[in-house]
Amino acid sequence: MPNFLINMFNKIFPNFNERKIKDYYSTVFEINCYYKSFTNLSDNELKIKTSDLRSAILQGQTMKSILPEAFALVKEATRRVLGLTLFDVQLIGGIILHEGKIAEMKTGEGKTLVSCLPAFLNSLFGKGVHIITVNEYLAQRDSTLISQIYELLGLSVGLVTADMNIDEKKYNYNCDITYVTNSEVAFDYLKDNMVMDISHIVQRNFFYCIIDEVDSILIDEARTPLIIGGNTQSSVSKYIKASEISKYLLKDKDYEVDYKKQIVTLTDKGLLNIETLLNIIDLYDIYDPWAQYIINSLKAKELYIKDVHYIISNDHIEIIDEFTGRIAHGKRWSEGLHQAIEAKENLSIKQGMKTLSSITYQNFFLLYPKLSGMTGTAKTEEYEFEKLYKLPIVQVPTNKKMQRIDFPDIVYRTSYYKWKAVANECYDMYLIGRPVLVGTTNIESSELLSRLLSDYNLPHNLLNAKPENIKRESEIIAQAGRKKAITIATNMAGRGTDIILGGNINVVVKCKILDLLFNNQFINLNSNKMLVELLNINDLNSPLMITRLDNQLYDLLKRSEYWFKKLSERIHNKREIQKFIIFIIENKHKYNYSNNPLILLYQLLYNNYTLILEEEKEEVIKLGGLHVIGTERHDSRRIDNQLRGRSGRQGDPGSSRFFLSLEDKLLKNFGADKIANLMNNLHIEDSVPLESVLLTSVLENVQQKVESYYYDIRKSIFDYDQVLNSHRYGLYSERKKILNNYYLKDIILQYSQNSVDQMASLYYSSYKQQNKKLAKSVLINLNELLGLKENIELQDLNSLTLNHIKFLFRQQMIISYDLKEAYWEEIAPGTIRQLEKYYLLSQIDQAWARHLEAMVQLQDAISWRSYAQQDPLIEYKTESFNIFYNLYQYISQSVVYMIMRTSKVI
Ligand code: ADP
Ligand code: MG
């Protein structure tokens, strides 16, 4: 159903979702009955229950029938290990995930634990369950948490990270449940399909997958495919030649320039001119592409101006950022444009990357027979999830009633007054002590606001989405709910970590300890000062303080310091030490409390901070909770909802407000004039904002338009990738077959037959057309290839039909191959089998890389040629069929050629 129909449907039947939820309650009731009956079982008996369920499945019981018991086991294990009781809405979320759907549950509703339920149930099959997170920090955090529950139930939890070797990865993928990031799991899939030895494959066949923050992975990241690249060798000369030629070409005669859209198109005359100058037949030949080089050179000539778009420094092209006017160090324009500009400026040309293999997330995740996902914000993209992924969405009600107030947007005429208003709002909140989270759409504006707040002398944390900061990010976000905290974050930063009012105790204590150890605050501190620092208490005379000043803590600090020094002697790498300490803290339940001073220190600080944070929480709640400020409407409502959703978790109070200006990108592009007119008519001054509910709904309409624009782009990428995907599937299965086989002679012979058949056909047709020269050269090639003792000559074939010739060629080929094999067996027994495998696999990989490039060229060529009245996608499908056919021809020829030649050399 298109979005507007779904919207209409939801308006007419507002209770449809509710009814779906109601249906789940009978199962919830069953789960809770089992759960109650498990209270008195021993830990060991719980484990036995798990293996009972496993055997039930082996004996053919359906998952549906054992779901209540399995979920109840997880609920009981969670209670025992974490001391948390799963809410009914969490159980419902689990059922939805098990059904292969998307569970929309708000931030802070406890989705990590929700995924644990279906993961457990599905892992009973023994085929592995993948839980996908957006970054490694979350994968690590969640797997540590969940592994405690699973250990109790007797299941294994794996974690795959980028720095692991093959054996470690394999071990972790073989666990019952595996935590891994979206990029790592897809890269491993690509790499598994490039291995030369079967023992290097790390993944099992896919079975069931739960994607956390599913909208971020399947929607936001859907536009950039994953690529494994290698260095390219070719084409430097092409850039230079293209640059030369572009100098001779004339604007409006050979080519036309559209400055607004930033595109260059060739005229028919220009096309002919270029082909003559280059002495080629087809500028768009996908195996010898020139068009892209020429177009890029013309773009470099017409659209990219030195000292406006780039500067030259140290013989390098450096891009000038169009928004900030700053140099974007190290950034390069893509798809050959950068090289074209280097050629124009007579600089040395830096090699680009060649794609060895690639896949889009869209098609990657569709490889799972069963897929499911969870997020706080999916509903706005319902159509896309249903259409492309066949993933229906069910909205799960919150556990406690949502208390957040979303105020209507405020619009200023200029961005100057907008930012001033944002800073003022931060100031007002700071004065009363309410924590504030400000979301910005880009790094520049977050820095701008940060400077403004510094002018106001307001302490604040600034976050951006650089990958190396993700861990720290989560820590800052975890403290964003403390009193007086002001946090500026680009919209996506710190996803997956919820903001707890008063602060997240675990993170606060962990940070404090790391801070203490690494900044050497122990040394030369008198105990009072140190404790003030440590306990974060400003008032030395507070009654709380007196109870906390005890010698025990001081001694403990000394011991920890000693322990840390010893540790530093053993491990020199600061990062490693930090990792180790975090590991101990996070796995503290496994350690003996009385031994390790670090754990004792943790415990002590934990107790102290619990008091402080609890007090703080009460205070913050009284003040109204977290206030979220949006500084620009994003292109998609979903991202705005994510930002708002940071506040009001688990029934907390909270509020949100967006501050906008007519100079914002979204407003500038759509409908700012109407609002400006309105402001003029009302004689509103620049410093006075417009605030209305009506305006908010106008903006939502604009956003819906932009959303559907981006949907179309993603849909088109998906459609084009579908074509390539079927090729990928075919090739990967063939490759797997080869990899799994020891005896490949039959495949080689089959490929060879294919090759010599082609030669026979070519020979026959040229002979019939009296083209003796061509016929002869075919025979020379054949003789050369087969290395025959007695060459096949023209006169031998005179009177034969095509079928006879094919038969003869095949025979000769088999004889030649047998001879090579015998020869090899004598000097190095068994080698021929290895050679066969090696050549088959490496030629497939090379051919695939060549194919990928050809497909990109084809897509470009089709878009450049612009077919009148024709759907380019259909054109693409038709032509890609030929390219795919070529791929197989190419593989079979090159394999035979390689293997025959190698034998000859030895
Ligand atoms: P989400 O991913 O939905 O934003 P998380 O899984 O990160 O939420 O959980 C948020 C917080 O809620 C965590 O600190 C978690 O321990 C806590 N939590 C989850 N489930 C429960 C529960 N049933 N009772 C109490 N706290 C819970
Ligand atoms: Mg989460």
TrEMBL record:
State whether keyword Chaperone applies: no
Q: Name one GO molecular function term.
A: ATP binding
List the SMART domains.
SecA_DEAD, SecA_PP_bind
Which residues are involved in binding ATP? 90, 108-112, 498
Q: Which InterPro entries match?
A: Helicase_ATP-bd, P-loop_NTPase, SecA, SecA_CS, SecA_DEAD, SecA_motor_DEAD, SecA_preprotein_X-link_dom, SecA_SF2_C
Q: What is its main location?
A: membrane
Domain SecA family profile positions:
6-691
- Helicase ATP-binding domain residues are 92-251
Pfam families for this protein? P-loop_SecA (PF21090), SecA_DEAD (PF07517), SecA_PP_bind (PF01043), SecA_SW (PF07516)
The way it spans or sits in the membrane comes to: Peripheral membrane protein
Q: Its GO biological process terms?
A: intracellular protein transmembrane transport; protein import; protein targeting
Which keywords fit this entry according to its UniProt record?
Answer: ATP-binding, Chloroplast, Membrane, Nucleotide-binding, Plastid, Protein transport, Thylakoid, Translocase, Translocation, Transport
Annotated EC? 7.4.2.8
Q: Which reaction does it catalyse?
A: ATP + H2O + cellular proteinSide 1 = ADP + phosphate + cellular proteinSide 2
Gene3D superfamilies reported in the protein's UniProt record: Helical scaffold and wing domains of SecA, P-loop containing nucleotide triphosphate hydrolases, SecA, preprotein cross-linking domain
**Gene Ontology CC:** chloroplast stroma; chloroplast thylakoid membrane
Q: What class of enzyme is it?
A: translocase
Q: Where in the cell is it found?
A: Membrane; Plastid, Chloroplast stroma; Plastid, Chloroplast thylakoid membrane
Q: Describe the family membership recorded for this protein in Swiss-Prot or TrEMBL.
A: Belongs to the SecA family.
Q: What does this protein do?
A: Has a central role in coupling the hydrolysis of ATP to the transfer of proteins across the thylakoid membrane.
HAMAP family recorded = SecA
- The protein's name: Protein translocase subunit SecA
From which source organism is this entry? Compsopogon caeruleus
Annotated gene: secA
